[in-house]
Design goal:
Helix content is about 10%, strand content about 40%. By secondary structure, it is mostly beta strands. The strands form six sheets. A five-stranded mixed sheet has the order 4-3-6-7-10, with no helix packed on it.
Length: about 350
C-alpha cells in the first residue's frame, strides 16, 4: 500500500509569499523589542535622543526619540540582527552592532552618551547574549540553523516541534497529546508569526506544521506567559517564519531510505537457506521513504520588499496487513468475506 504525506510545506507557500515591507508595522505578537534609558556622563537622563534600529538583513529602519525621562522603546521588531544608533546634537554618536533579537524577546540596552562632536563617534560590537530584564517568561528557544544541522530521523516527515518533547523542560507527550507543566491534553496554544494556528483541536497542528526549512526560530514558552496569549491553559509553541533579505539565498536537500541499501534479516536468510525453492519469498521487505525540499528567498525591491518560498514533501511505501483470502485451486484468490461469509448470511447478491 502506497501512502503519501505532505509536510505542509505547500501550505507554507501562501504564508511565505507574504511580503515584508520596510515600513512601520502594526503591532504583532511574537516580535521583539529593544528598550532602555539614555544618560550622560554625569548619570542624568537625556531626553530628545534619536534612537534608530537597523535590521542588518533587510536594512529596515525603525526610529524613536527618548522621552523626558530618557526612556526609549523600539517595538514590534522582526527577529534578526540589528545595529542601534543614538544621535543628539552636542554628544558623540553612539552605535552598537551585532544585537541579535530572538522571538518574543525584550532586550534592555542602557546607554551613556559622551560629550563631543560628530567626528567622535563611538561604536561597540556586541557578540554576547544580552540580558532580558523586561519580562519573567521561561522557555526554550531553538534556532533553525542549529536544529536542521542535527542528524534527524525523517520517518513520517520532519517535525520541528518534536524537539520540544525531547529537550524542553516541563514539556511531555507527543504531537497528538502533549502536556506542559502537567496540564491537560489539547490545552497549549500554537502561534505562527503572531497568529493562532489552532483551528479545531486545541494545541494540535500535527498535520499543518510548517516546514523546518521555513522556520527561523521556534520557542516553547512554559511559564510567565504574557496576557496576549490568554487563550492557553498550558504553554505556547511559538513559530517565527523566515523572511527574504537583500541577498538571494536558498537551499535544496533530500533524504532517501530504500531496502536496496538494507541487509536482509537473519530470519529471512535462515528460511531461504532451509527451503531454496521458495527463497524469493524471503527477500528483503520493501521499505522506501523519501523526503526532499527546497527554499529560496531574496529581494523584490531592495531595502523594501522581499519574498521567501519553502516546499517540502515526504513519501513512504510500506506493507499493511490485508484481508483473508481463499484459493479456489485455479490460481484465483477471492476474499473470504465475499466467497463464504456473505452468502451464508443471506446477503443480497451473494
Amino acid at each position: 500500500m502506497r501512502g503519501r504525506g505532505f509536510t505542509v510545506a505547500w501550505a507554507i507557500l501562501a504564508v511565505a509569499l507574504v511580503l515584508s515591507m520596510a515600513t512601520p508595522a502594526l503591532a504583532q505578537s511574537g516580535r521583539g523589542t529593544i528598550s532602555g534609558v539614555v544618560r550622560d556622563a554625569s548619570g542624568s537622563v537625556v531626553p530628545g535622543v534619536s534612537v534608530t534600529a537597523t535590521n542588518r538583513g533587510t536594512n529596515a529602519v525603525t526610529t524613536v526619540t527618548t522621552n523626558a525621562d530618557g526612556l526609549y522603546s523600539l517595538r514590534n521588531l522582526p527577529i534578526g540582527t540589528y545595529s542601534v544608533n543614538l544621535t543628539l546634537s552636542g554628544f558623540a554618536p553612539y552605535t552598537q552592532e551585532g544585537i541579535t533579537l530572538a522571538l518574543g524577546e525584550t532586550i534592555t540596552l542602557d546607554h551613556t552618551l559622551a560629550v563631543g562632536g560628530l567626528a567622535e563617534a563611538v561604536t561597540v560590537s556586541a557578540d554576547t547574549a544580552l540580558l532580558n530584564r523586561a519580562n519573567p517568561e521561561i522557555g526554550t528557544s531553538m534556532a533553525s540553523d542549529i536544529v536542521t544541522n542535527l542528524p534527524l530521523n525523517f520517518a513520517g516527515g520532519r517535525s520541528l516541534e518534536n524537539f520540544a518533547y525531547a529537550i524542553a523542560p516541563s514539556v511531555e507527550g507527543n504531537n497528538w497529546t502533549s502536556h506542559i507543566n502537567g496540564g491537560a491534553d489539547f490545552t497549549k496554544e500554537v502561534v505562527l508569526d503572531g497568529t493562532s494556528a489552532v483551528i479545531q483541536i486545541g494545541g494540535h497542528i500535527g498535520e499543518s506544521s510548517p516546514s523546518m526549512e521555513a522556520v527561523e526560530e521556534f520557542t516553547v514558552q512554559t511559564s510567565g506567559v504574557p496576557a496576549e496569549y490568554g487563550r492557553t491553559a498550558g504553554g505556547i509553541f511559538n513559530f517565527s517564519l523566515k523572511s527574504g533579505t537583500n541577498q538571494f539565498r536558498g537551499s535544496a536537500y533530500g533524504y532517501l531510505r530504500n531496502e536496496a541499501l538494507n541487509a536482509n534479516t537473519w530470519h529471512n536468510n535462515y528460511l531461504a537457506a532451509t527451503d531454496p525453492g521458495i527463497s524469493s519469498k524471503y527477500e528483503r521487505a520493501e521499505d522506501r521513504q523519501y523526503l526532499g525540499g527546497a527554499s529560496l528567498g531574496g529581494p523584490i525591491i531592495k531595502d523594501k520588499t522581499f519574498f521567501y518560498l519553502a516546499a517540502e514533501e515526504y513519501q513512504q511505501t510500506r506493507f499493511l496487513l490485508g484481508g483473508l483470502t481463499h484459493d479456489d485451486g485455479a490460481g484465483q484468490r477471492d476474499p473470504v468475506l465475499l466467497r463464504h461469509v456473505l452468502p451464508r448470511l443471506g446477503w443480497p447478491g451473494y
